[in-house]
Amino acid sequence: MRSRYGAACIGAMLVTVLPAAAAETLKHGGTLTYLIPADAPPSFDGHRETTFATVHSAAPFYSVLIRIDPQNPSSTTDFVCDLCTEMPKPTDGGKTYTFKIRQGVKFHDGSPLTAADVAASWEMIIHPPQGVLSPRGSDYAMVDTVEAPDDATVVFRLKFATNAFLPGLADPFAWIYKKAILDKDPHWYEKNIMGSGPFKFVDYQIGQSIKGVKNPDYYRKELPYLDGFTAIYADKQAVRVEAIRSDRAEMEFRGLPPSARDELVHALGDKIAVQESDWNCGSIVTANHKKKPFDDVRVRRALTLAVDRWHGAPALAKIAVVKTVGGIVFPGSPLAATRDELQRIAGYWPDIDKSRAEAKRLLKEAGAEGLSFELLNRNVDQPYKYVGTWLVDEWSKIGLKVSQRVVPTGPWFEAMRGGTFDVVLQANCHSIVNPALDVTPYLPGSAENYGYYTDQHELDLYDKMLRETDPQKQHALMNDFENYVTDEQAHAMVLPWWNRIIPYQSYVKGWKISPSHYINQDLATIWLDK
Length: 530
What we know:
This protein is α+β, with helices and mostly antiparallel strands. 28% of the residues lie in helices and 22% in strands. The strands form five sheets. The protein has a six-stranded mixed sheet with strand order 13-17-12-16-14-15. Strands 8-9-10-2-11 form a five-stranded mixed sheet, with helices on one face. A three-stranded antiparallel sheet has the order 1-4-3, with no helix packed on it. Strand 14 (372-378), helix 11 and strand 15 form a beta-alpha-beta unit. Helix 7 (297-305) packs antiparallel against helix 10 (352-365) and helix 14 runs antiparallel to helix 15. The longest helix is centred in the last third of the chain and has 18 residues, at 471-488.
């Protein structure tokens, strides 16, 4: 049922938990109340969206083909079946993966789930029809076809072998939908919910809450332990902290800053537990290349040269959920740039005065001295508003006059997708640490790249790196790709990576932290010791 694939676990994880009783008796029942730090999800369609607001709202209603083991979610290699019966061994030189699908699984409407539904869902992700958005579609460029030769078998045939494929299948957004619904209306799941997961949909109040109840027909008969859940939307950090402090909510799954952790531990003592982990999530800044003067690489390079990451990260870490300076690859990964390699890239030079002098020179040469522009930002406290404020201050040190337009999640996505912005603060967040795929949002043409430019050379660099199987050669190729994207062309700029901190009521059991706020969100293994 499980496969250990690829390298060892990446990144150190610190878990701080109060010791459990010597013998805890698992308890069934109860309702988990948790907080979602957003105003509302832009839609309920996991195939379409990239935000935690969608996963935290709807993941409990769905099943996936494979997943990271919920008992070992910090692993980057420990995959187990969800809807399949056993992890396959690839054939045809690593180009064919054949999965056997569980029998007797039912959708929440009572209809059977078959291999046809699995294949149709993955086809919608990998080869979406015109007019259907699939932001992770480019992650599966190696996939040729997905077939269901019978009701119990799904076959993925690849164009070329790559170790990036299997981790990609464990994507927690890759919910299995009903083929008959997709055939009739591929947009149906944007506003509706109907899956086969451990919980059934009950109610949704826009901007307020979403509720689920235990699925009595769930194929894992011992799960879930909870009778149900209520998720409350609360985009203000103060509201969420007070809800946990007063025990009106058990936890949130995204992450709180160090100050909130310390406040809760001080107030509640042994009634609060804390888990912490490195976070496969980084802030990035993208300039709209269609807007002048951001079509000029000199201006884009000036933006990144102005930012002092080495001194900024430790200061931000005291107030925000950011911590580690890194490049486009998750720090600690074998493909990540070393400190020496980073310090050769614009924006990472050890001498910030030299860096800012070069930024000013480039702006003057481009005729953009004293440039005024607007930074589009998301109405989420951590870390968007903190990082945005820091950026505005950093840019002011080279004479730039920057204002922020902070908007809710939905309008934020709409502005990015419509190209109605100058520069935007985004997040490049992923689930499984899978660097060869995690960098695809930097590619022109990716649904998650809002730079609005074309660059065939960048695509060629990426493709060469993706196909390389020798670790040392692949690292060098990733370094070439990173230098081109973030320095030579400055298509994007990378800011410090995040740090995940989860304080929660100590009576919540059965949940383990991971390097991603997307993983392990179906709530099936959680139980309440109360």
